Amino acid sequence: MRLLDRLPRESGGEYALRTIKENIISLDLAPGSQISENELASEMGLSRTPVREALIELAKVKIVDVRPQKKSTIPLIDYDMVDESRFMRDLLECAVVELDCRMAAPADLERLEENIRIQRLYLDDFYSSQLVTLDNQFHGMLFDIAKKSQVFALIQNISVHFDRVRTMALSSVKNGKIVQDHIDIVDAIRRRDPEAARALMETHLNRYDIDAAALRAAYPQYFK
């Protein structure tokens, strides 16, 4: 498991939840793998209680299968859950980019463009884990610009189902397309064109459907 730096004033439970979730998204905790509450607590330097609480929280959205007195399991990817997660993201993010077309200031566009510039650097050198982090930051910025940052925070747990597929997409069949999508979305926001921004976001969030067969071929062990 890849350990994250603990943030200032971050509680043990918050740190455990963030670390486990990020490792599930990055596939460092791979679909189908078993995890031990004791081992996770030891690795993160925590007691068992915050780790147990984090696993219970993730179990609520079916991204961890908690088994009392036994090791828990990271479920295989279920496309029904991926689709449910994508459905929610689709509704919210398409609305958010329409708001961004009205609310984005020049400084906001600069932040988005800087994020994309770094994405392109990592894409050239093919650092997929950094691309996933930057991709998440990009989408978070869109919510922040629309003054909907709390909404973005609330959807993070259920989004893990969709985010695992995004990780595979960024590290295999669609990485260049996804970065280009970001460029096009920012261009539509700059032009104050909400219809184009919405259409581009819909295409962007549906790319996992377009290349589902390629993802299954590349990672057959990860799917139900």
Residue stretches low in confidence (pLDDT < 50, at least 5 long) are none
How large is the count of helical segments?
Answer: 12
Please tell me the overall pLDDT.
Answer: 91
| Lateral arrangement of strands in the main beta sheet | 1-2
Overall 3D form = globular
Radius of gyration: 18 Å
Q: Topology as H/E string?
A: HEHHEHHHHHHHHH
Estimate what percentage of residues fall within beta strands: under 5%
Measure the end-to-end span: 23 Å
Structural class: mainly alpha
The level of helicity is 55-70%
Number of DSSP-assigned strands: 2
Largest sheet: 2 strands, antiparallel
Describe this entry's structure for a reader:
The protein contains 12 helices and 2 strands. The protein is mostly helical and 224 residues long. Strands 1-2 form a two-stranded antiparallel ribbon. Helix 4 runs parallel beside helix 9 (175-190).
Brief digest:
By secondary structure, this protein is mostly helical. 69% of the residues lie in helices and 2% in strands.
Topology summary:
Layout: H1 12-25, E1 34-35, H2 37-44, H3 48-60, E2 72-73, H4 79-103, H5 106-125, H6 128-145, H7 149-154, H8 160-171, H9 175-190, H10 194-205, H11 207-210, H12 212-218
Antiparallel strand pairs: 1-2
Helix pairs in contact: 1-3, 2-3, 4-6, 4-8, 4-9, 4-10, 5-6, 5-9, 6-8, 9-10
